[in-house]
Amino acid sequence: LYDMKGCYSRLRALVPTLPRHRRVSKVEILQHVIDYIWDLQLALQPGAPRAAPGGDPPEAPCMPAADSILCR
């Protein structure tokens, strides 16, 4: 149990999309981690659209419900 608490704390520190002003559940942490990994995969794909300097990052496309737990 102690090791898992440390793992969740580490995830909170590494994922920039997690809200810092309120407590989040373990499930919400995992949802943000999944979304963040998806965003990183899209950014690393060859030919991926890049955000203009100072602009907003491109939105991830919505995956079919059968292919994803979460749909943005």
What would a concise description of this structure say?
One of its GO terms (biological process) is negative regulation of transcription by RNA polymerase II. By secondary structure, this protein is mainly alpha-helical.
Q: Can you walk through the features of this model?
A:
This protein is an all-alpha fold. The chain has a domain at 4-44: MYOD Basic-Helix-Loop-Helix Domain, subunit B (Irregular), CATH 4.10.280. The protein is built from 2 helices and no strands. The chain has helices at residues 2-14, 26-44. It is elongated and about 40 Å long. The model is unreliable at 58-72 (pLDDT under 50).
Largest sheet: none
Which oligomeric state applies?
single chain
SSE order: HH
Q: Alpha-carbon distance between the termini?
A: 31 Å
Write the CATH homologous superfamily of the domain at 4-44. Answer: Helix-loop-helix DNA-binding domain
User: How many helices in DSSP terms?
Assistant: 2
- Low-pLDDT stretches: 58-72
Number of separate strands: 0
Please state the CA-atom Rg, rounded to the nearest Å: 14 Å
Domain BHLH: 1-40
InterPro entries: bHLH_dom (IPR011598), DNA-bd_prot-inh (IPR026052), HLH_DNA-bd_sf (IPR036638)
Main location: nucleus
GO molecular function: protein dimerization activity
